[in-house]
Amino acid sequence: MFTIKDVRNNSGESTYIALENVTKTTSAKIYTTLGASLQELNLNGKSIIADLSPLTYNNTYASSLLFPFANRIKDGSYSFDGKTQQFPINEPGNNNALHGLVYNKTFQIIEQQVTENSATIKLQYTEENASIGFPYTYTFQVEYVLTTDALDIHIEVLNTDTKPFPFTIGWHPYFSSSDLYNSTLNFESNKQLVFDARCITQDIAYIKNNPVFEVKDKQLDDCFLLNTNKIQFNTPEYQLLISASAEKNFLQIYTPPKQNTIAIEPTTGVSDSFNNKMGLQTLQPKAAYNVTWQVKLL
Predict the structure, then answer these.
(1) Looking at the DSSP assignment, which residues form a beta bridge with residue 139?
(2) SS3 content of the chain, % helix, strand, coil (to 5)
């Protein structure tokens, strides 16, 4: 049997939502005040996503949900529908806007269900005011479905405004390995983005499709255009399949300053997508966009 528990601090404020099975070998922690982000994940006794301390969420964006844009926007500026908009700069060292607007919002629980084989929780953030740089209203829902050996993340974005808006979306999880040097990735790609010193997309480079990507001691902050919707992460302790329902998929790989940890980020757009249009989509008024990511032990 699975359970869902709302863990609160001494002031009665919700700290995180804990989902787990009866043996506690499969569990997840979701922080409602950190953009409904998944901060810990264990599947069938394997540590998949772990606390990044002493690194902080404000610097890592660990497991943050990225909307209305994934990655960066150069100088925070873009034009849409004949108007120029200016996002706040939250990466001041590079003068970029970074990772969208919902990563630090507080989400509300709107549905939950437990069964013998799963735990499901749906959370929602409703933006009722025009944001700086994004003068539109929307509702953002995320549903986590935890089973013994998998986690499904269902996203739905509803445009509640009277105007269409541009968007990309992504997820920023960091995965644990007992030995990252001897871990590998399998994915299909023959195109890689070329970044400038500010991590802004400049070009696309054609590369040889290598079915096995060895991490070794590489310092990574790279983005690939995927030919499929699947990525496999192989560690000495487990193999994990990461899949996406999106029609067009990009893969961002990043190694943070923490040993045996790697960010493997599925996204529908790239750095500066609001300007270069790569992966950029438009959501019409009253329309909804849905995407699902799954991580599953093999």
Answers:
(1) 126, 158
(2) 5, 50, 45
